[in-house]
Amino acid sequence: MSYKDFLLIISPPDTVNYQIARFKKACAKHIGPFDAQHSKAHISFGLYGEEIQTPRQKTFVMERFIDLVAEDINIMEPVEVTINGFNVFSHGKKSRTVYAVIEATEKTTAWFNKIKEILRIEGNITPHITIAKSLSIDNFNKLWPHFEKLEFKHEFTPGCITVLTREIAEKPGYYSLYKEIPFARRQGHSVANPS
Prior knowledge:
By secondary structure, the protein is of the alpha+beta class. The chain contains 4 helices and 8 strands, in the order βαβαββαβαβββ.
């Protein structure tokens, strides 16, 4: 058994993926290629299992963990999530990340906190969709005026948490689908089909 990383995400619908891809393409026209330029739009819950030392144990433990948390996720009703505008993460004096904002209402904050609790994530998380990651200050200064006043609003209801995996030996960034863990379906409510 090989040593694997696991990444848990929420995927927005195709309409959002398409728009985020357009924003990334526009960024590349202004600053050239950048980190994660071709990654699909997603809300990330982070990389899992880095503290476990042996490859076989890590994969086995993570697969078991995912099976256990799936039971709790399956009974969670999804909430409507609203993407509204853009903001910036500051990484000290050297870099910035531009992202699409997930509106934090009382309901969505409680929902994301519940997921965080189920997934045993410690510390604060800011649900978001990355546009351009770890930009130099120069590149950030070229891009931010384009995003600062740009309007982008979209609402969707997540259908599942997607679990991605990759072999450690593979080039970073190349993930494949491991499993989709659906949220509970609400009677008479249409849920966006994640891609």
